[in-house]
Structures are given as C-alpha cells and as structure tokens.
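[retry 2/3] Helix-turn-helix domain-containing protein: previous attempt timed out, resubmitting with same input.
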Amino acid sequence: MATMTVAQVAEFLGIQDIRVERLARENLLVPCDKDGDGKPLFEEDDVKRYKILAERLGGL
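[retry 2/3] Helix-turn-helix domain-containing protein: success.
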C-alpha cells in the first residue's frame, strides 16, 4: 500500500497541513506510521475513503 505524507494528504484534500495534523490528533484520519520527523503517514486508501465520507457529510 502507498503511504502519503501530511503535505500530500493536504494537497489531495485541498486543505492546509495543520488541518491534516488535527484530523490525525482527533482520530478522524488515522495514521499508519510516522516519518523521521515524527509526522504522521497515512494509507492512500484511507485518505480516499475519508474524502468520500467527508463529501457525503457536507464537505471538507
């Protein structure tokens, strides 16, 4: 599975990096690992599913 960094997730979702980190802290977007700097990494499939869910609930 492909992993995505915070910056890649932010670009894919069209939001700011800080918001991706907040989603991870609140367990709304669950990280699969951490990079060398301690920032979360996400599974690409999880990010795609989150985007679909968020759009159904009224947007990001």
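[retry 2/3] Helix-turn-helix domain-containing protein: Residues 22 and 28 are 9 Å apart (CA to CA).
[retry 2/3] clearing retry counter.
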